[in-house]
């Protein structure tokens, strides 16, 4: 059973099932290139905008203190396009480049995930429990060109920077700045 925001879960579920059944039965062509951000997220945003789909949140985050972030499909699409532009234009990343995100599960974690899909950049998630040694290993093994973290975890990243020869840019998620880091919120 699926959870519903506005009581219309059966319609969406049946549409998704029938779409996949039609692909499996070769009634629909499997696309050569598929991008979740543009092929699904943007399509749902258009359906909502045209009134052909009820307005449900695409993203709804609540922290332990009860603070909420709620984005519609259109808002998530717009924000993810901006974040993809930050990654490609400001950070200079291209399709196939790798990004490591060492973040707690904050809204930007999901935003960056979608932005990477949109830009064709490989998103490598890392938990906030990684040690400096763990971060260095991931940077070296993945040849990541960008790392994204927050103020709390930035010192661990900075301690291993001399060993990360492929890294081009560092993004910080949070308020304020840090020497040598780009601030994601300011760039968005």
UniProtKB/TrEMBL annotation:
GO terms, biological process: acyl-CoA metabolic process; fatty acid biosynthetic process
UniProt domain AMP-dependent synthetase/ligase: residue ranges: 52-174
Family: Belongs to the ATP-dependent AMP-binding enzyme family.
InterPro entries hit by this protein: AMP-dep_synth/lig_dom (IPR000873), ANL_N_sf (IPR042099), Mitochondrial_ACSM (IPR051087)
Pfam families hit by this protein: AMP-binding
Membrane-spanning intervals of the chain: none
Reaction(s) catalysed by this chain's protein: a medium-chain fatty acid + ATP + CoA = a medium-chain fatty acyl-CoA + AMP + diphosphate
GO CC annotation terms, alphabetical: mitochondrial matrix
Keywords: ATP-binding, Fatty acid metabolism, Ligase, Lipid metabolism, Nucleotide-binding
The protein, known as: medium-chain acyl-CoA ligase
Protein encoded by which gene: Acsm3_2
GO molecular function: ATP binding; fatty-acyl-CoA synthase activity; medium-chain fatty acid-CoA ligase activity
EC number(s) reported in the record: 6.2.1.2
Class of this enzyme: ligase
